[in-house]
Design goal:
Blueprint (H helix, E strand, L loop, with lengths): L4 E3 L2 E2 L7 E2 L5 E4 L6 H17 L4 E7 L6 H6 L3 E6 L2 E7 L13 E9 L5 E7 L14 E3 L6 H13 L3 E12 L7 E11 L11 E8 H5 L2 H5 L1 H15 L6 E6 L6 E6 L1 H11 L2
Parallel strand pairs: 4-5, 8-12
Antiparallel strand pairs: 1-2, 3-4, 5-7, 6-7, 8-10, 9-13, 11-12, 14-15
């Protein structure tokens, strides 16, 4: 007869429910409230089972309403991996080998939007918060790409939110990477070229002090813009796009071989198409 008790007074059917991940580990998603002692026994028994099975990383997703279980898991050797508004992710490495658990997300993604109209006027704003508040510096609309949002979607949304202007995304002209930014994370900032679809400005009062269509030369003449790195190069990009062609990267949808999901690859599509045509002539 099969024994009912597996270890530490926990029945086999009372082990923590888990699913395998793609890298030899398991993922536990806690959902039901439980006593901390019961949880500790289930966790110890489960870890013993997973060790015998040769599992590697163990992930435990703890919803905010079960925060009382976090201390118990930490005492068993788990550590914090990352947190979101509604849950905390804990992790544990079983084998006595080098830990290959990936670090938490390391980058934040931001955009800056160059919106030029046919009058050679640039859409610019003065910020109501941040380092440039009260400096009278005019800058292009900027913002942070939201979770699950593509770069081109974020650029369209940010321009609309800050100025009320509808735009069409054209291309990525340049990007910058910095480190040790907000919360010690790295930062990717994409400068995007946009085409205006409307022209009546309705600024966002919370974040924007002022917004206007400014002659490109007037924007470029600002001392701050002429002296400071990314502002200077943004000015140069504005001028070269107004005067002649400067090819950027456009988003092209691609489908994943693994799960059929759609993402976007940014590259100089026109240039690639021309080169491909030349090769096949």
């Amino acid at each position: 007869m099969e024994k009912l008790v597996f270890q530490n007074g926990v029945k086999k059917d009372q082990l923590l429910s888990a699913v395998n991940d793609d890298h030899g580990g398991v993922i536990v998603e806690l959902k039901e409230p439980m006593d901390t002692t019961v949880f500790q026994n289930m966790l110890k028994a489960s870890l013993s089972k997973w060790k015998l099975q040769g599992k590697k990383g163990v992930w435990i997703k703890v919803p905010i309403e079960l925060v009382n279980l976090v201390e118990t898991a930490v005492k068993e050797g788990f550590w914090y991996h990352h947190a979101e508004p509604h849950y905390l992710m804990l992790v544990y490495w079983i084998p006595e080998t080098e830990n290959t658990i990936p670090a938490n997300a390391s980058h934040r993604v931001g955009i800056g939007a160059i919106v030029l109209n046919e009058k050679r006027e640039l859409l610019v704003v003065q910020e109501n918060s941040g380092r440039l508040k009260g400096t009278a510096v005019w800058k292009i609309p900027t913002g942070i790409v939201e979770e699950g949002e593509d770069i081109f979607e974020g650029a369209i949304r940010e321009v609309k939110e800050e100025t009320g202007i509808d735009t069409q995304f054209l291309e990525v002209l340049a990007f910058r990477q910095t480190h040790k930014a907000l919360f010690g994370k790295s930062d990717l900032f994409f400068i995007c070229m946009m085409h205006p679809l409307s022209f009546d400005i309705q600024k966002q009062d919370l974040e924007i002090e002022a917004a206007q269509w400014m002659p490109l030369e007037e924007y470029a003449a600002q001392p701050f813009v002429q002296k400071h790195g990314i502002f200077k190069y943004t000015k140069d990009l504005c001028l070269v796009k107004a005067e002649r062609d400067y090819p950027g990267f456009t988003p092209v949808p691609i489908t994943s071989f693994f799960d059929g999901s759609t993402s976007f690859l940014y590259f100089n599509k026109d240039g690639l198409d021309q080169e491909s045509s030349a090769i096949h002539l």
